[in-house]
Amino acid sequence: MSIARTKYAYGLNTRLDTLALTPRTRNLLKTEGFMRVADLVRITSAQLLLMKGVGPGTLAEVREVLTVCGLALREPRDELTDDDARRLRMQPESTSHRPESGVANP
């Protein structure tokens, strides 16, 4: 699927399997418990790179797809605004991934 085909409105609740990710990246993220865009935007690039099988190419792919969605991975010093926190609370969370630990699921 082409990145250009994915240019439509995305919400944080959008499932990752609807994005233009390669099967390898999609499967890797699913294995780590990422199911929705909200799961991805809660982590930093460093946290993503800590996952087994994730390297610079996978990181670039995830960043590109999120950019098309008008989103990005969290930066280490980013603080959530009240509006961001409110939106994230409204989205159902994935129970298998806890990005605040700083380490992907073992």
- Broad CATH class: Mainly Alpha
| CATH second-level architecture | Orthogonal Bundle
Number of strands: 0
The averaged pLDDT comes out at: 76
Total of DSSP H or I helical runs spanning 4+ residues: 5
Distance between the termini: 31 Å
Helical content class: 25-40%
Structural class: mainly alpha
Give a description of the structure.
It is a single chain. The protein has 106 residues and is an all-alpha fold. It has one domain: DNA polymerase, domain 1. 39% of the residues lie in helices and 0% in strands. The longest helix is centred in the middle third of the chain and has 13 residues, at 56-68. The protein is globular. The relative contact order is 0.21.
Give a concise summary.
The chain is mostly helical. Helix content is 39%, strand content 0%.
